[in-house]
Automatic annotation (TrEMBL):
Functional note: Catalyzes the transfer of the enolpyruvyl moiety of phosphoenolpyruvate (PEP) to the 5-hydroxyl of shikimate-3-phosphate (S3P) to produce enolpyruvyl shikimate-3-phosphate and inorganic phosphate.
Record keywords, A-Z: Amino-acid biosynthesis, Aromatic amino acid biosynthesis, Cytoplasm, Transferase
Catalytic activity: 3-phosphoshikimate + phosphoenolpyruvate = 5-O-(1-carboxyvinyl)-3-phosphoshikimate + phosphate
Subunit and interaction comment: Monomer.
Active site: 303 (proton acceptor)
Keyword Cytoplasm belongs to the record: yes
Annotated protein name in UniProt: 3-phosphoshikimate 1-carboxyvinyltransferase
Family as reported in the entry's similarity comment: Belongs to the EPSP synthase family.
GN (gene name): aroA
Protein location: Cytoplasm
């Protein structure tokens, strides 16, 4: 199945889908707390279901209650079967940190894409904590960890993936002996770690931030909690961009106090000249306007790169997107994947090591787009198709189910000419 997109004008209101990042953390932390937790309005997508299946395999009891997920956690143990995290980097990384604190051997695998993504810095840090790690020489999945960890100090780079840091933080309380994390390089995507710290605090574990890392005090345990998952600014960015490029779109179900780093996209739209209005309840309205080029540092919000690049093709002047070298190790090499489809659509775009340079504005035209199974490439290309002459045909549109299963339906409800082939 493919998706055909035609030039469209969008108008209307749509609710942002639940946050994928918050859902992962809510499911895992509920499994670690001894007692019953209720996760309301979670994102039910391919990645988060991989996490849900994994915590069930580790011994948590999972059930549905309407739109809520009920998890009874505590007393986790190593399963006999391999945990398949499919395409979810968040799942395999954070759960590796959890497994390191469990007695016995826990084995992990995933699909071909996940098995090519970096894991070695995290696995090395777990080995430093006394965990036995069995993995290929490149440190990627499949791998196994045998715990429990006995050490209380880990050293790790901060510029490969914030998920490594979240993994160490979330797993630490299970050991009971505390953990000190020293970062050897600056931390990228810091808001994702702040999101982890905030989620841990809600469940009774306060993390101390130091000059070069973090400390999880000894003797802390997670408490069960009922939480509601708010809207996802990462997914909302595609709706915002559609409004800025092709009409007038209002997005609800967003919390202005949420620590999600991708919230910065709203400020970026304002900086570039889009018409933006915000309400105290978090509702954001974005409308079309002439856009101007700016240099944009995406170190703390790398997931915005594909849609920021689409937006930049319509800016007058030269835009430089930078600070996101680790995008080359996502579901696809997102810098290369983005440059490929935008160049095919007529954009003047040049790859750099950590981003790209775009000269605009460009008149885009329809093209055949290869997503490489990457949900953010698929959604960014679909938004680009809304302003392109002719037809944009996108392969594997179903990959958006990883983070935004209703993306096409929501875009159609706003007036987008999108149809499956």
């Amino acid at each position: 199945m493919m998706l055909a997109v035609q030039k469209s004008t969008l108008r209307g209101t749509v609710a942002a889908p639940p946050s994928k990042s918050h859902t992962h953390r809510a499911f895992i932390l509920a499994a670690l707390a001894d007692g019953e937790s209720v996760v309301s309005s979670p994102l039910i997508g391919e990645d988060t279901c991989a996490t849900l299946d994994a915590v069930a395999a580790l011994g948590a009891t999972v059930s549905r209650r309407g739109d809520d997920v009920v998890i009874r956690g505590g007393g986790l143990s190593a399963p006999a079967d391999v945990i398949n995290c499919k395409n979810s980097g968040t799942s395999i990384r954070i759960l590796a940190g959890v497994a390191a604190q469990i007695a016995g051997t826990v084995s992990f695998t995933g699909d071909a894409s996940l098995c090519s993504r970096p894991m070695k810095p995290l696995l090395d840090a777990l080995a430093e904590l006394g965990v036995t790690v069995s993995a290929a020489d490149n440190g990627c999945a499949p791998f196994s960890v045998t715990g429990p960890a006995t050490g209380c100090c880990a050293t790790i780079r901060g510029d490969i993936s914030s998920q490594f840091i979240s993994a160490l933080l979330i797993g630490a309380p299970l050991g009971g002996h505390g953990l000190t994390i020293h970062l050897t390089t600056p931390l990228t995507s810091r808001p994702y770690v702040e999101m982890t710290i905030a989620a841990m605090k809600k469940r009774g574990v306060a993390v101390v931030t130091t000059g070069d890392g973090f400390i999880v005090p000894e003797g802390r345990q997670y408490l069960p909690a009922s939480v509601r998952v708010g809207g996802d600014y990462s997914s909302a960015a595609f709706l915002f961009a559609a409004g800025a490029l092709a009409g007038d779109v209002c997005v609800t179900n967003l919390d202005p106090a949420d620590p999600q780093g991708d919230k910065m996209f709203i400020g970026l739209l304002e900086l570039l000249g889009a018409v933006v209005s915000r309400k105290p309840d978090g509702t954001v309205r974005v409308g079309h306007n002439e856009l101007r080029a700016e240099d944009v540092n995406l170190a703390d919000a790398p997931d915005l790169f594909p849609i920021a690049a689409v937006l930049s093709t319509q800016c007058s002047g030269t835009t430089r997107l930078y600070g996101a070298a680790h995008l080359r190790f996502k579901e696809s090499d997102r810098i290369k994947s983005t440059a490929l489809f935008l160049r095919d659509m007529g954009a003047d775009i040049t790859e750099t090591e950590d981003g790209c340079i775009i000269r605009g504005p460009s008149t885009l035209h329809g093209a055949k787009v290869t997503t490489f199974g990457d949900h953010r490439i698929m959604m960014a290309a679909a938004v680009a198709g809304l302003i392109a002459d002719g037809t944009t045909v996108i392969d594997d549109p179903g990959c958006c189910a990883v983070s935004y299963p209703a993306f096409v339906a929501d875009m159609q409800a706003l007036g987008a000419d999108m149809r499956y082939l």
